[in-house]
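Morning - uridine 5'-triphosphate inputs below, output right after.
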Amino acid sequence: MLRMPFSIRKAVFPAAGLGIRFLPATKAQPKEMLPLVDKPIIQYGVEEAIASGVENMIIVTGRGKNAIEDHFDVAFELEAFLTARGKAELLAEIRKVSDLINVAYVRQGEPRGLGHAVLMAEPLVGDESFAVILADDVIDATPPALAQMIKVHEEVEGPVILVERVRPEDISNYGVIAADPIRPGVYRVTDMVEKPPREQAPSNLAIIGRYILTPDIFGALRATREDHSGEIQLTNGLKHLLKDRPVYACEVTGVRHDTGNKLGFLKAVVYFAMQRPELAGPLREYLKTVT
Ligand code: UTP
Protein backbone atom coordinates (compact mmCIF):
# COMPACT_ATOMS: atom_id res chain seq x y z
CA MET A 1 0.00 0.00 0.00
CA LEU A 2 1.26 3.47 -0.87
CA ARG A 3 1.84 5.63 2.14
CA MET A 4 2.96 9.17 2.78
CA PRO A 5 6.61 9.29 3.89
CA PHE A 6 5.80 11.06 7.18
CA SER A 7 2.50 9.41 8.04
CA ILE A 8 2.30 7.58 11.36
CA ARG A 9 0.71 4.14 11.29
CA LYS A 10 1.78 2.65 14.59
CA ALA A 11 1.44 3.73 18.21
CA VAL A 12 3.39 2.07 21.02
CA PHE A 13 1.80 2.04 24.47
CA PRO A 14 4.35 1.22 27.16
CA ALA A 15 2.27 -0.41 29.89
CA ALA A 16 4.73 -2.61 31.70
CA GLY A 17 5.37 -0.35 34.69
CA LEU A 18 4.52 -1.64 38.15
CA GLY A 19 2.13 1.16 39.12
CA ILE A 20 3.65 1.44 42.59
CA ARG A 21 1.85 4.71 43.29
CA PHE A 22 -1.54 2.97 43.07
CA LEU A 23 -0.85 0.01 45.32
CA PRO A 24 -2.74 -1.92 46.57
CA ALA A 25 -5.18 -1.29 43.67
CA THR A 26 -2.48 -2.32 41.19
CA LYS A 27 -1.42 -5.48 42.98
CA ALA A 28 -3.60 -7.67 40.77
CA GLN A 29 -4.71 -5.29 38.01
CA PRO A 30 -2.83 -2.94 35.72
CA LYS A 31 -3.13 0.76 36.47
CA GLU A 32 -3.94 1.30 32.77
CA MET A 33 -7.26 -0.47 33.44
CA LEU A 34 -8.38 1.85 36.25
CA PRO A 35 -11.53 3.58 34.97
CA LEU A 36 -12.16 7.27 34.45
CA VAL A 37 -15.94 7.05 35.00
CA ASP A 38 -16.52 3.83 33.02
CA LYS A 39 -13.69 3.70 30.52
CA PRO A 40 -10.21 2.35 31.34
CA ILE A 41 -7.40 4.88 31.15
CA ILE A 42 -5.67 3.10 28.26
CA GLN A 43 -8.80 3.25 26.12
CA TYR A 44 -8.66 7.06 26.13
CA GLY A 45 -5.16 6.82 24.63
CA VAL A 46 -6.20 4.23 22.04
CA GLU A 47 -9.19 6.36 21.00
CA GLU A 48 -6.88 9.38 20.67
CA ALA A 49 -4.59 7.38 18.37
CA ILE A 50 -7.52 6.24 16.22
CA ALA A 51 -8.89 9.79 16.05
CA SER A 52 -5.43 10.89 14.89
CA GLY A 53 -5.45 8.41 11.99
CA VAL A 54 -3.16 5.79 13.57
CA GLU A 55 -4.37 2.26 12.89
CA ASN A 56 -2.01 -0.14 14.63
CA MET A 57 -1.51 -0.31 18.37
CA ILE A 58 1.47 -2.03 19.96
CA ILE A 59 1.07 -2.51 23.68
CA VAL A 60 4.16 -3.30 25.75
CA THR A 61 2.95 -5.38 28.66
CA GLY A 62 4.47 -7.09 31.64
CA ARG A 63 3.52 -9.44 34.42
CA GLY A 64 -0.14 -9.29 35.50
CA LYS A 65 -1.33 -7.26 32.50
CA ASN A 66 -3.70 -9.84 30.99
CA ALA A 67 -6.69 -7.63 31.67
CA ILE A 68 -5.44 -5.22 28.99
CA GLU A 69 -5.37 -8.01 26.38
CA ASP A 70 -8.81 -9.22 27.43
CA HIS A 71 -10.18 -5.69 27.25
CA PHE A 72 -9.27 -5.27 23.60
CA ASP A 73 -10.27 -8.81 22.68
CA VAL A 74 -13.70 -10.02 21.59
CA ALA A 75 -15.76 -10.92 24.67
CA PHE A 76 -17.89 -13.65 23.13
CA GLU A 77 -19.99 -14.65 26.16
CA LEU A 78 -20.58 -11.05 27.18
CA GLU A 79 -21.69 -10.14 23.66
CA ALA A 80 -24.06 -13.13 23.53
CA PHE A 81 -25.51 -12.11 26.91
CA LEU A 82 -26.04 -8.48 25.89
CA THR A 83 -27.60 -9.59 22.57
CA ALA A 84 -30.01 -11.92 24.38
CA ARG A 85 -31.01 -9.12 26.77
CA GLY A 86 -31.49 -6.63 23.92
CA LYS A 87 -28.88 -4.24 25.30
CA ALA A 88 -27.93 -2.84 21.90
CA GLU A 89 -26.26 0.32 23.12
CA LEU A 90 -23.92 -1.45 25.54
CA LEU A 91 -23.21 -4.10 22.92
CA ALA A 92 -22.16 -1.44 20.44
CA GLU A 93 -19.93 0.14 23.10
CA ILE A 94 -18.26 -3.21 23.85
CA ARG A 95 -17.84 -4.08 20.16
CA LYS A 96 -16.35 -0.68 19.40
CA VAL A 97 -13.40 -1.56 21.61
CA SER A 98 -12.52 -4.82 19.86
CA ASP A 99 -13.63 -3.82 16.34
CA LEU A 100 -11.79 -0.59 15.98
CA ILE A 101 -8.30 -1.57 16.73
CA ASN A 102 -5.61 -3.68 15.31
CA VAL A 103 -3.52 -4.52 18.32
CA ALA A 104 -0.30 -6.45 18.93
CA TYR A 105 1.40 -7.19 22.22
CA VAL A 106 5.01 -7.48 23.16
CA ARG A 107 6.35 -8.36 26.55
CA GLN A 108 8.92 -6.50 28.61
CA GLY A 109 10.31 -9.25 30.84
CA GLU A 110 11.22 -6.92 33.67
CA PRO A 111 10.48 -3.23 34.09
CA ARG A 112 13.85 -1.80 33.07
CA GLY A 113 12.58 1.65 32.23
CA LEU A 114 10.53 3.46 29.61
CA GLY A 115 13.41 3.52 27.10
CA HIS A 116 13.80 -0.24 27.46
CA ALA A 117 10.03 -0.71 27.00
CA VAL A 118 10.18 1.25 23.72
CA LEU A 119 13.12 -0.88 22.60
CA MET A 120 10.99 -4.01 23.10
CA ALA A 121 8.64 -2.73 20.38
CA GLU A 122 11.38 -2.50 17.73
CA PRO A 123 10.56 -5.80 15.92
CA LEU A 124 6.92 -4.73 15.58
CA VAL A 125 7.65 -1.13 14.62
CA GLY A 126 10.31 -1.88 12.01
CA ASP A 127 11.89 0.86 9.95
CA GLU A 128 9.32 3.63 10.17
CA SER A 129 8.42 6.60 12.35
CA PHE A 130 5.95 5.80 15.11
CA ALA A 131 4.12 7.31 18.05
CA VAL A 132 4.63 6.54 21.74
CA ILE A 133 1.66 7.18 23.99
CA LEU A 134 1.96 7.06 27.76
CA ALA A 135 -1.62 6.26 28.67
CA ASP A 136 -1.22 7.91 32.10
CA ASP A 137 -1.42 11.30 30.44
CA VAL A 138 -5.02 11.61 29.31
CA ILE A 139 -5.43 14.63 27.07
CA ASP A 140 -8.77 16.15 26.12
CA ALA A 141 -8.06 18.15 22.97
CA THR A 142 -9.50 19.06 19.59
CA PRO A 143 -7.76 18.17 17.36
CA PRO A 144 -6.39 15.29 19.44
CA ALA A 145 -2.93 15.81 20.95
CA LEU A 146 -1.38 13.15 18.73
CA ALA A 147 -2.90 14.72 15.61
CA GLN A 148 -1.35 18.06 16.64
CA MET A 149 2.03 16.32 16.82
CA ILE A 150 1.66 14.47 13.53
CA LYS A 151 1.05 17.80 11.81
CA VAL A 152 4.31 19.15 13.24
CA HIS A 153 6.13 15.91 12.36
CA GLU A 154 5.05 16.27 8.73
CA GLU A 155 6.35 19.84 8.76
CA VAL A 156 9.75 19.29 10.46
CA GLU A 157 10.33 15.74 9.22
CA GLY A 158 11.90 14.62 12.50
CA PRO A 159 11.14 13.39 16.03
CA VAL A 160 8.59 15.45 17.97
CA ILE A 161 8.14 15.53 21.75
CA LEU A 162 4.95 16.82 23.32
CA VAL A 163 5.49 19.53 25.95
CA GLU A 164 3.33 21.58 28.27
CA ARG A 165 4.09 24.70 30.27
CA VAL A 166 3.92 23.82 33.94
CA ARG A 167 4.08 25.88 37.14
CA PRO A 168 7.64 26.49 38.45
CA GLU A 169 6.84 24.52 41.63
CA ASP A 170 5.95 21.46 39.52
CA ILE A 171 8.84 21.51 37.05
CA SER A 172 11.11 19.22 39.05
CA ASN A 173 8.65 16.34 38.50
CA TYR A 174 9.28 16.31 34.75
CA GLY A 175 11.82 15.98 31.99
CA VAL A 176 12.39 19.56 30.82
CA ILE A 177 13.56 20.88 27.46
CA ALA A 178 15.87 23.72 26.56
CA ALA A 179 14.68 24.91 23.17
CA ASP A 180 14.71 27.60 20.49
CA PRO A 181 11.28 28.66 19.21
CA ILE A 182 10.57 28.02 15.52
CA ARG A 183 7.06 29.44 15.54
CA PRO A 184 4.36 29.74 18.22
CA GLY A 185 4.03 26.32 19.88
CA VAL A 186 6.86 24.63 17.95
CA TYR A 187 10.47 24.44 19.15
CA ARG A 188 13.79 22.98 18.20
CA VAL A 189 15.14 21.16 21.25
CA THR A 190 18.69 22.01 22.28
CA ASP A 191 18.87 19.96 25.48
CA MET A 192 16.80 17.84 27.87
CA VAL A 193 17.14 17.53 31.64
CA GLU A 194 15.41 14.85 33.70
CA LYS A 195 13.70 16.23 36.84
CA PRO A 196 15.88 19.32 37.39
CA PRO A 197 15.76 21.29 40.66
CA ARG A 198 13.42 24.23 40.12
CA GLU A 199 16.21 26.83 39.96
CA GLN A 200 18.18 24.79 37.38
CA ALA A 201 15.31 24.09 34.98
CA PRO A 202 16.20 25.40 31.51
CA SER A 203 12.55 26.35 30.81
CA ASN A 204 9.04 25.69 32.07
CA LEU A 205 8.34 23.37 29.12
CA ALA A 206 7.81 19.92 30.58
CA ILE A 207 7.91 16.74 28.51
CA ILE A 208 4.54 14.96 28.70
CA GLY A 209 3.43 11.53 27.61
CA ARG A 210 3.51 11.63 23.81
CA TYR A 211 6.37 11.22 21.38
CA ILE A 212 6.75 10.79 17.65
CA LEU A 213 9.99 8.94 17.11
CA THR A 214 12.06 8.01 14.10
CA PRO A 215 13.49 4.47 13.87
CA ASP A 216 17.02 5.69 14.71
CA ILE A 217 15.79 6.02 18.32
CA PHE A 218 16.33 2.26 18.68
CA GLY A 219 20.08 2.53 18.02
CA ALA A 220 20.23 5.53 20.36
CA LEU A 221 18.46 3.56 23.10
CA ARG A 222 20.80 0.63 22.66
CA ALA A 223 23.71 3.00 23.11
CA THR A 224 22.14 4.54 26.23
CA ARG A 225 23.48 3.46 29.60
CA GLU A 226 21.27 2.45 32.47
CA ASP A 227 20.70 5.15 35.05
CA HIS A 228 21.49 4.81 38.78
CA SER A 229 18.31 2.76 39.30
CA GLY A 230 19.20 0.32 36.52
CA GLU A 231 16.64 1.75 34.06
CA ILE A 232 17.06 2.91 30.48
CA GLN A 233 15.34 6.26 30.25
CA LEU A 234 13.72 7.44 27.03
CA THR A 235 14.86 11.00 27.75
CA ASN A 236 18.48 9.81 27.84
CA GLY A 237 17.95 7.97 24.54
CA LEU A 238 16.58 11.18 23.04
CA LYS A 239 19.59 13.12 24.33
CA HIS A 240 21.77 10.61 22.51
CA LEU A 241 19.72 11.08 19.34
CA LEU A 242 20.04 14.85 19.66
CA LYS A 243 23.77 14.53 18.92
CA ASP A 244 22.98 13.13 15.47
CA ARG A 245 19.81 14.89 14.35
CA PRO A 246 17.45 17.74 15.25
CA VAL A 247 14.65 16.94 17.68
CA TYR A 248 11.54 19.11 17.92
CA ALA A 249 8.88 19.86 20.50
CA CYS A 250 5.23 20.72 20.10
CA GLU A 251 3.30 22.54 22.84
CA VAL A 252 -0.03 20.88 23.40
CA THR A 253 -3.31 22.75 23.11
CA GLY A 254 -5.80 20.99 25.35
CA VAL A 255 -6.45 19.80 28.89
CA ARG A 256 -4.03 17.18 30.25
CA HIS A 257 -4.58 14.98 33.26
CA ASP A 258 -1.72 13.07 34.84
CA THR A 259 -3.67 10.03 35.99
CA GLY A 260 -0.45 8.35 37.17
CA ASN A 261 -0.75 10.11 40.53
CA LYS A 262 -3.72 9.92 42.88
CA LEU A 263 -4.77 13.56 42.83
CA GLY A 264 -4.45 13.76 39.04
CA PHE A 265 -6.49 10.57 38.73
CA LEU A 266 -9.27 11.92 40.97
CA LYS A 267 -9.37 15.23 39.09
CA ALA A 268 -9.65 13.32 35.80
CA VAL A 269 -12.58 11.26 37.11
CA VAL A 270 -14.43 14.44 38.10
CA TYR A 271 -13.50 16.19 34.83
CA PHE A 272 -14.83 13.38 32.62
CA ALA A 273 -17.90 12.81 34.82
CA MET A 274 -18.76 16.49 34.36
CA GLN A 275 -18.89 15.89 30.60
CA ARG A 276 -21.69 13.34 31.08
CA PRO A 277 -25.10 15.04 31.14
CA GLU A 278 -26.55 12.32 33.39
CA LEU A 279 -23.77 12.69 35.97
CA ALA A 280 -22.74 16.36 35.87
CA GLY A 281 -25.69 17.81 37.83
CA PRO A 282 -25.90 15.25 40.64
CA LEU A 283 -22.10 15.13 41.00
CA ARG A 284 -21.87 18.93 41.28
CA GLU A 285 -24.58 18.86 43.97
CA TYR A 286 -22.77 16.11 45.82
CA LEU A 287 -19.38 17.87 45.69
CA LYS A 288 -20.97 20.97 47.28
CA THR A 289 -21.84 18.86 50.30
CA VAL A 290 -18.34 17.42 50.77
CA THR A 291 -16.45 19.35 53.40
P1 UTP B 1 5.91 5.49 35.33
O1 UTP B 1 7.11 6.29 35.65
O2 UTP B 1 4.59 6.16 35.51
O3 UTP B 1 6.00 4.15 36.19
O4 UTP B 1 6.08 4.97 33.86
P2 UTP B 1 4.88 3.10 36.58
O5 UTP B 1 5.58 1.88 37.01
O6 UTP B 1 3.86 2.93 35.50
O7 UTP B 1 4.13 3.78 37.82
P3 UTP B 1 4.70 4.04 39.30
O8 UTP B 1 5.63 5.19 39.17
O9 UTP B 1 5.36 2.78 39.73
O10 UTP B 1 3.47 4.36 40.08
C1 UTP B 1 5.70 5.73 32.73
C2 UTP B 1 5.16 4.81 31.65
O11 UTP B 1 6.17 3.91 31.22
C3 UTP B 1 5.74 2.57 31.35
C4 UTP B 1 4.64 2.60 32.41
O12 UTP B 1 3.75 1.51 32.23
C5 UTP B 1 3.99 3.95 32.13
O13 UTP B 1 3.07 3.89 31.05
N1 UTP B 1 6.90 1.75 31.76
C6 UTP B 1 7.74 2.19 32.74
C7 UTP B 1 7.13 0.54 31.14
O14 UTP B 1 6.39 0.12 30.23
N2 UTP B 1 8.23 -0.18 31.51
C8 UTP B 1 9.07 0.23 32.48
O15 UTP B 1 10.05 -0.48 32.76
C9 UTP B 1 8.81 1.45 33.11
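Note: The radius of gyration is 19 Å.

O.
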